[in-house]
Amino acid sequence: MSRSRKPDWLKMRPPSGERFTDIKSTLREYDLHTVCEEANCPNLGDCWSGRDGPGTATFMLMGDRCSRGCNFCDVKTGGMEALDPDEPENVADAVTEIGLEYVVLTSVDRDDLPDQGAGHFARTIREIKQRDPDTLVEVLIPDFQGEPELVREIIGAEPDVIAHNVETVDRLQWPVRDRRASYEQSLSVLGQVHQESDIYTKTSLMLGVGEYDHEVYQTVANLRSVGVDIVTFGQYLQPSTRHLEVSEYVHPDKFDVWKQVAEEEFDFLYSASGPLVRSSFKAGEFFVKSLLRDEISVTDARDVADQA
User: Fold this and answer.
1) What are the tens digits of pLDDT across the range 43-63?
2) Which is it for strands 102-107 and 161-163: parallel, antiparallel or unpaired?
3) CB atoms within 10 A of CB 229
4) Rounded CA gap, 229 and 269, in Å?
5) Buried b (16+ CB within 10 A) or exposed e, 232-271
6) Domain coordinates of the chain in residue numbers?
7) How many angstroms separate the CA atoms of 180 and 70, rounded?
């Protein structure tokens, strides 16, 4: 299929509805960023609405400019600003006001900071949990240049899920990712979380950047070998002509195959897989259903996770 024309299965509906409007208004009130908006996520409306379970919004901490320049990402690079000391409290206040039961925190890379932003992450987790210990918190963290003490700071704040995206297969780390990232470094971060805690681990792979099936299979095996619990697969979409070109529009049937491989052959807790799936796609809905099997309320999910 030609790379120049998107297939029908990639058609998106613009976000709408009262819930979407309310969340957007609250975010602007607290001057907060979401990766949902900054990265032009195709699922923004569905995730925010929470039609089939806990709504999910992904807050992007530490500004809207990244210290790295990955060739797939639409987030602006360079021109780093000082951290907003009020951001952790503002995020927690917004989570409470919106009534989110499941929140995802991510960030730009902040290689310019002494702790690369790990302390800011940890403080935000604690502020949210302090207001409501039953709020489920997933963090999608940078690699912190593979420094174990910084990963350990995130673990110590006790989120419910720690995610870090390997993004693509080993061979394609460059040109897909910034040269400061690496496959082995990402595996080490995920492996450390598994070894040092009972916190669920998660990662995501983009398809359509030139990978071969056997490389995807090997990546899935590597991820499970270091203890990753959840893996998602999505189609890479070129944000602009300045970014990496799409190599292939992967058919939805192949995404179904990778979901089956992950869940049935490698026994991942769950795998969200589809052309429009992104790392945090309906994260609350999938996570809660996987743990609770729809038998108890979301407010009991933390206790269930602790006992799993």
Assistant:
1) 555 555 554 445 567 888 999
2) unpaired
3) 24
4) 5
5) bbbbbbbeeeeebebeebbeeebbeebbebbbeebebbbb
6) 8-307
7) 10
**CA dist 172 to 40, 167, 177, 182, Å?**
23, 9, 8, 10
What are 198's two structure tokens? 């009972």
With contact defined as beta carbons under 8 Å apart, do 175 and 71 qualify? yes
In terms of phi and psi (left: phi > 0; alpha: psi -120 to 50; beta: otherwise), the region of 66 is beta
Give φ, ψ of 59 to 5 degrees: -80, 135
Amino acid making up residue 148 = P
Give the CATH H-level superfamily of domain 8-307.
Aldolase class I (3.20.20.70)
**Digit-coded pLDDT (tens) for 163-222:** 999 999 999 999 999 999 999 999 999 999 999 999 999 999 999 999 999 999 999 999
As a dihedral over the C-alpha atoms of residue 203, residue 111, residue 24, residue 46, rounded to 10 degrees, the angle is -10
The position carrying tokens 């195709």 is: 42
Please compute Rg for the chain using Cα positions: 18
Confidence (pTM): 0.86
- Fill in the DSSP letter of residue 262: I
Q: Which residue has the tokens 């900054």?
A: 38
Residue 52, classified by CB atoms within 10 Å of its CB into exposed (0-12), middle (13-18) or buried (19+), is exposed
Closest CA to 102 of 263, 292, 267, 271: 292
Lowest mean pLDDT among 24-33, 75-84, 273-282, 294-303: 294-303
* Cis bond upstream, residue 175 (ω within 30): yes
CB atoms within 10 A of CB 111: 17
Residue 136, φ and ψ in degrees, nearest 5: -85, 130
Distance separating alpha carbons of residues 35 and 75, to the nearest angstrom: 9
